[in-house]
Amino acid sequence: AQSVTQLGSHVSVSEGALVLLRCNYSSSVPPYLFWYVQYPNQGLQLLLKYTSAATLVKGINGFEAEFKKSETSFHLTKPSAHMSDAAEYFCAVSSPSGNTGKLIFGQGTTLQVKP
Amino acid sequence: EADIYQTPRYLVIGTGKKITLECSQTMGHDKMYWYQQDPGMELHLIHYSYGVNSTEKGDLSSESTVSRIRTEHFPLTLESARPSHTSQYLCASKPDNLYGYTFGSGTRLTVV
């Protein structure tokens, strides 16, 4: 079975500071991994995805994530936070085998950006 | 730009009423999904579909039902709404050959 754990339900950073949102996964097969962002009262928007190519993945809005198999991690980073980055962030895992394409989501991390 | 649409965005309804949440996508995706999201919580898969006339229950038990008569349309129905159904419902779709979903904006349902 697959699962995702996001460490820290709330993260607060100052504008301009480094953003680090942590995600660890559990999967019996090589996983596909995703980060989504959700702004208030909206659906989810894909930030980036890892699908077994380069382990360092660059996404939209200056975010990137690194797949570390030895640590079973896929942490999301951004060098300099903007006020507009304040949102809910979800890490998700999917299995490349099988046909369902189901995503298993973590509990989410709320990012607060202080002026 | 291709997209996925959910209506209504917000719905407040009385206990016992029948409701249908609409989800339509213009991308020709075969796979579609319904997720339930309580405030501040993770998303739980309640239904999915591989294509026309295909529906499956998800990981979280739900009293809702779905249908898939046309590729672009994947409505979710609650025959008798209860306060415990109060939640946000998110619809998503994906093409067969790619990973990662496209999500709709969600329907926030309140049952009073």
Describe this entry's structure for a reader:
The complex is a heterodimer of chains A (115) and B (112). The termini of chain A are far apart. The mean pLDDT of chain A is 90. Chain A is 0% helix and 54% strand. Chain A has strands at residues 3-7, 10-14, 19-26, 32-38, 44-50, 56-58, 64-68, 73-78, 87-94, 104-105, 109-114. Chain A is mainly beta and 115 residues long. In chain A, strands 2, 4, 5, 9, 10 and 11 form a 6-stranded mixed β-sheet that branches. In chain A, strands 1-3-8-7-6 form a 5-stranded antiparallel β-sheet, with no helix packed on it. Helix content of chain B is 0%, strand content 49%. Chain B starts with a strand and ends with a strand. In chain B, the strands form 2 sheets. In chain B, strands 2, 4, 5, 6, 9, 10 and 11 form a 7-stranded mixed β-sheet that branches. The model of chain B has no long low-confidence stretch (mean pLDDT 91). Chain B has strands spanning 4-7, 10-13, 19-25, 31-37, 43-51, 54-57, 65-66, 76-78, 87-94, 102-103, 107-111. Chain B is an all-beta fold and 112 residues long. Chain B is globular and about 40 Å long. At the A-B interface, β4, β5 and β10 of A face β4, β5, β9 and β10 of B.
Roughly what fraction of the amino acids of chain B lie in strands? over 45%
Low-confidence stretches of chain B: none
Biggest chain pair interface: A-B, 26 and 28 residues
Oligomer: heterodimer
Enumerate the spans of chain A where pLDDT stays under 50 for 5 or more consecutive residues.
Answer: none
Mean pLDDT level of chain A? 90
Principal-axis shape of chain A equals globular
